[in-house]
Amino acid sequence: MLKLCTLSSGSSGNAVFAEAGGTKLLIDCGISGKAAAERLCSIGVDPSELSAIIVTHEHIDHIKGVGVFSRRYGLPVYASVGTWNGMISTVGSLPADNIRYIEADTPFSVEEAIIFPFATSHDANESLGFTVSDGRKFLSLATDLGKVDKYVYDNIRASELLLLEANHDENMLLNGPYPPQLKQRIFSDSGHISNKVCGALCGRLLDEGGREKRVILGHLSQENNTPRIAFDTVRRSVEHAGGRVGGDIFVTVAGRGEPGEILEA
To answer: How far apart are alpha carbons 118 and 128 in whole angstroms?
Structure first.
């Protein structure tokens, strides 16, 4: 069985619970260790049951509580070399055995979970997305994407559970208060993808067939998006592709400061 649940999502902090084959994982911990533990408990997961922390990249909204959480529960931390180089000063001292190096396109296992890292286009040292399997089914985490190309799509297309970035509404960002340089960064191929791009991606996923895809829209901008706008934009894109949200694909929106719905497959 697979499970996927956001504990926090957005520029104020990202943390995701994933389970595959009974192995429980924390993907990113951009909130305090205390908050992460409380939110895990609120969804019925004892933090001591976790087997590892896996990190996408070194930005503070993804690593704030990694060091504290790892030390408190004795968890190994898996991240790329570039991410380790960027986050070690924030994470702090860890036992050598809890520092694990991974790289894109080289699968690794944590107990019963098989993890497939893939590179993402984001302005970080060596950012990764992840597809996780129990040996039969797949779930994917693909946020801080910058762009969606064939490589990213091929890495997530088989997944039944997905956390996909829907960072901003293009008009809100364009006409909003951010300075031009920041707008340019977000719009770029090393920034974040919009509701529109996410919706197009969901429309493409309809072609994969099989069981219904279950999608969480995540990493929404507080200033340049709303849950309703993100959901409606994706819904229209799915309908344009000939599908139906709630029928062909299930879509929900991650909570910013509280756990979202637990998806299972």
So the answer is: 5
Instruction: Give the CA angle between residues 2, 167, 75 to the nearest 5°.
Output: 45
| Three-state secondary-structure class, residue 95 | coil
pTM above 0.85, yes or no: yes
Q: How many CA atoms lie within 13 A of 226 on its CB side?
A: 5
pLDDT tens column, 224-259: 999 999 999 999 999 999 999 998 999 999 998 899
Nearest to 113 by CA among 239, 238, 4: 4
**CA angle at 240 for the pair 237 and 244, rounded to the nearest 5°:** 80
45 within 8 A of 24, measured Cβ to Cβ: yes
Question: Domain segments of the chain: what residues?
Answer: 2-264
Beta strands, E only, 42-135: 50-54, 77-80, 99-102, 108-110, 113-119, 128-133
pLDDT tens across 122-135, in order?
999 999 999 999 99
* Contact in structure between 68 and 93 (CB atoms under 8 Å): no
**CA 87 remoteness from chain centre:** 18
Topology (CATH level 3) of domain 2-264 = Metallo-beta-lactamase; Chain A (3.60.15)
